[in-house]
Amino acid sequence: MHKKHILMITLVATAVIAALLWAFTPKSVMVETAEVTRGRFEQTIDEDGKTRVRERFVVSAPLAGRVQRITLKAGDAVARGDVLAIMQPAAPPLIDAREERELEARVGAAQAALARARTNVAHARAALAQNRADAVRTQKLAAQGFVAPAQLERDELKATLSAREAEAADFERNAAAHQLEQARAALTRSRQGWQAGRGERLDIRSPVSGRVLRVVQESEAVVALGAPLLEIGDPTDLELVVDVLSGDALQIAAGQTVKLERQAGSWPALEGRVRKVEPSAFTKVSALGVEEQRVNIVIDITSPREQWQNLGDAYRVDARIVVFAHSNAVKVPVSALFRDNAQWAVFIADGNTARKRIVETSHRGAREALVDKGLAPGERVIVYPGDAVRDGRGIEVRAEYNRK
Asked: Does one domain contain both 203 and 86?
C-alpha cells in the first residue's frame, strides 16, 4: 500500500511537471512570409493629382454693363471670332419726382449760365474792338508826336489783355454749353428709362478655337468690369498637376518617368514625363490638420491619345513619379524591414525558426526596398513581424505575402 501511494504521488508530480513545461514552452508564432526576388526596382513618390487644360482662356467683361443670357453650354465647340456673349449699357438708376425736379432745375441753371457766358463773350469782344481802335489811334498820334510813348504802351497792353479776356469768355461759354448738354442728357435718360433690346450693343468674341469648358455667368445680369463670363480651351491638350511635399520635390527633376495608375478600369495604365518642377512652394493643410509645404509638379501625358480620350479637365489621377530605378536588383517588401539600433534588419524563415539578419538597403519605395547586402534571391523573409517574433523563435507560416 505504501508503494502504491508513492507511485501515485510520482505519477501526479510527473503530470504536473509536464503540464508546466508545456504551458511555459514558447509556442510557434503564426507569420506571413515573402520571397526575396531579383528584378527591376523602382523608387517612386506616389501622390494624386488633377488634369488641367494646358492653355485656358477666361473671357471676361470688357466693360461694366448688362450681359445677355449666354446660350453656350460646357462642351460646345467655338471657332476663333465667334460671338460668345452680347453686352449692352446698364440701365440708369431709378429716380423719384424730387430728383427729376432737381434735374430740371439743373437744366435751367445750365441754360442761365450759358446765357451769362454768351453775354460775357459779347462784352469781351466789344471791349477788345474798342481797345484795339484806341491802340490804333494812339499809334498814329504817337507817330506825330502828340502822345507820349508811355500812353502808347498802355493802350497796346490794354488791347492785349482784352484779347485774353475774350478768349477766357469763349472758354467759359463752351464749358457752360457742355454743362447744359450733360444736364439735358441726364434728364432725357431718366425720363425715357431703360428698354430691353435698345441701346448700343457690344459683341464679345472668342479669342481662340476650342470648346467651352465652363460658363461662369449663364443668366442675364449686370456685371462689373473684368467679371469672368466663361472659359475656353482645348480638352484634348491636357497636362497633369501633382502637388508633393517640398522634401520629396528635391528628388524630382524634369524628364523623369511617371506612371499613371488605372482607376476603376475606365482606362489602362498610362505613362507620363515630368515637364517642370515649379520653383515656389505653397502651404496646404492635410486631412489631419497639419500644415505642409508642397510643390506643384507639372507632368505631360506621353501615352497615345486613344488610351486616355475619356479623361477631361480637372479629373483625379494617381501618379507614381519614378525617382530611382535599377534593372537587376535584389528586392524585399518594405514591410519586412525593421530598425535594429542604427541598422536595418529582417527575420529569415529558416524552416520553422525565425532568424534575425542585418541587411543594408540604399533605396526604399512605397512597396519594395532594394537590398545591397545581407539577402539572396529565393530566401524567405517574415513580413509585418510583431513583438512575438524573436531570433530563434518557432514560427508557422499561415499565408504568403501579396506583392500587388
From this structure: yes
